[in-house]
Design goal:
GO cellular component, one term: membrane
CATH superfamily of the largest domain: MFS general substrate transporter like domains
Membrane topology: Multi-pass membrane protein
Strand content: under 5%
GO molecular function, one term: transmembrane transporter activity
Transmembrane segments: 12-32, 44-64, 76-95, 101-122, 134-157, 163-187, 199-220, 226-249, 270-293, 305-326, 333-355, 361-381, 402-425, 431-449
Radius of gyration: 21 Å
Number of helices: 18
Pfam families: MFS_1
CATH architecture of the largest domain: Up-down Bundle
Number of domains: 3
């Protein structure tokens, strides 16, 4: 008998809270034109509204996971909800664009405390037979968020019975956070490491600094025409990341507190899994290029744009639920997920190149890609988290979240750069087709990595 009788109810509230993190990425993109009009904001300021959230989230997510290990996942999850609640209110009632950017920074802090607690709690609350179903339920919210973010954003921005406009994309967070706070309080224990340790502040500083120095140049490189100092900062960030790793190795050897146990990064199967997660999140490029293509080239409104992504989002939502019922090895499912991503994006690229406009046939190709995404995500999360002990679940969850976020940021930036740069040379349709094809090509890297994973025992 499981010692956590309310674990499934707790998972519902954990998942609902974690749902806010990806939702706020997708939904805010839909509100940017209204925010620009309200504050007379520049394109650079609008970019900061989006980037500062993902940047803070990616930089702090490992710290969020570690805090959950040390002080209890329930406490840190609720703290994240409080930060997310008040920062969402601050966003909605921002007096100017600078205030909004700062409030978005704190939203990213709150988000970084939420997602790691879910995967770590699944590792602790559920036995090995229940974990695949639990991870599949959690993974499905990302597919739901991709649909809900664009559809809900389009719907809220077209409401006329309220005095609010773009503010609604932030106010919608309020009831969800309040519900989760109450639900978690009554359904979840404050599980944490048995042996309390101090926080590795030096390690945290080095990791956050290195991630900022790596991610910022990638986000803003195109704005500054990829000047030499952009690459200098990027290389310096990699150097600081190496310093962080060496510092953690030294701290572990001297029995000092560590932020990330370096033995995790020395565990080859675990690292290979992180790499697959990193590359399949290049799919974020679709959500940058497709809405822009639909609105700027085909002149569709926000609701029409949101509806266009539904085939991908529905399949993304169904994929994890399907995985929970399929009795195949994880390696086979990884091949299946990556294969569907490659086929789906390749066909989408061909349809756009020849026909330019979305069609029912292209909806099918997007559905295949979304299904591939939905299949591989829970498999990789489950496989990766199963490779570590329960005591290191928070650290592992943080590293998984970092792989997701950095993959999304780097993938979105590279795919977006190819798309926007190619428009002036080959036009909108072929530029979009090229960007989508590039997403498919990147997934082949995961195929080769999975072949290396086959050398290790099936988990």
């Amino acid at each position: 008998m499981n010692i956590y009788p309310k674990r499934w109810q707790a998972l519902g509230y954990l998942t609902a809270g974690a749902f806010l993190s990806p939702l706020d990425y997708f939904i805010v993109n839909m509100a940017l034109p209204s925010i620009k009009k309200a504050f007379n904001a520049s394109d650079h300021q609008l970019q900061m509204v989006v980037a500062i959230y993902g940047l803070t989230y990616a930089a702090l997510v490992v710290c969020g996971g570690r805090l959950g290990d040390l002080y209890g996942r329930k406490k840190i999850f609720i703290l994240g909800l409080y930060i997310f609640l008040f920062s969402s209110l601050a966003c909605a009632f921002s007096p100017d664009i600078t205030f909004l950017i700062i409030a978005r920074l704190f939203q990213g802090v709150g988000a970084s405390f939420l997602a790691p607690q879910v995967l770590a709690s699944i590792r602790v609350l559920f036995n090995s037979n229940e974990q695949p179903k639990a991870v599949s339920i959690f993974s499905s919210v990302f597919g739901l968020a991709s649909v809900a973010g664009q559809l809900l954003g389009g719907f809220l921005l077209n409401l006329h019975w309220t005095v609010f406009s773009w503010e609604m994309v932030f106010l919608v967070n309020v009831p969800v956070t309040l519900l989760c706070m109450i639900g978690i309080h009554f359904t979840m224990d404050n599980n944490r490491e048995e042996r309390r340790q101090n926080i590795d502040f030096t390690g945290a500083f080095l990791l956050i600094l290195s991630l900022l120095m790596i991610i910022c140049p990638i986000i803003f490189g195109r704005k500054y025409d990829w000047a030499w100092w952009i690459f200098a900062i990027l290389l310096s960030g990699i150097f600081v990341l190496v310093m962080f790793y060496k510092y953690e190795v030294k701290s572990l050897r001297e029995a000092k507190p560590v932020l990330i146990d370096p033995t995790l990064l020395g565990h080859r199967p675990f690292v290979l899994c992180l790499l697959i997660i990193f590359f399949y999140n290049f799919t974020s490029g679709l959500f940058i290029c497709y809405p822009y293509y639909l609105q700027q080239f085909l002149h569709q409104n926000p609701i029409e744009t949101g509806l266009a992504i539904i085939p991908y989002g529905i399949a993304f939502f169904l994929g994890p639920l399907l995985v929970a019922r399929i009795k195949l090895s994880s390696h086979t499912l990884i091949y299946a997920g990556l294969g569907l991503l490659i086929v789906g994006f390749t066909l989408t690229s061909l349809f756009i190149a020849f026909y330019e406009k979305p069609s029912p046939i292209m909806d099918i190709s997007l559905f295949l890609a979304g299904l591939g995404h939905g299949i591989i995500m829970p498999v990789m999360m489950r496989k990766t988290i199963a490779l570590v002990s329960k005591e290191k679940a928070g650290q592992a969850s943080g590293l998984i979240s970092i792989s997701i976020q950095i993959g999304s940021v780097i993938g979105g930036t590279l795919i977006g750069t190819v798309f926007f740069s190619a428009i002036e040379y080959v036009g909108f349709p072929k530029a979009f087709a090229l960007a989508v094809l590039l997403i498919a090509v990147v997934q082949t890297v995961g195929i080769f990595i999975n072949r290396k994973l086959l050398k290790y025992r099936e988990n």
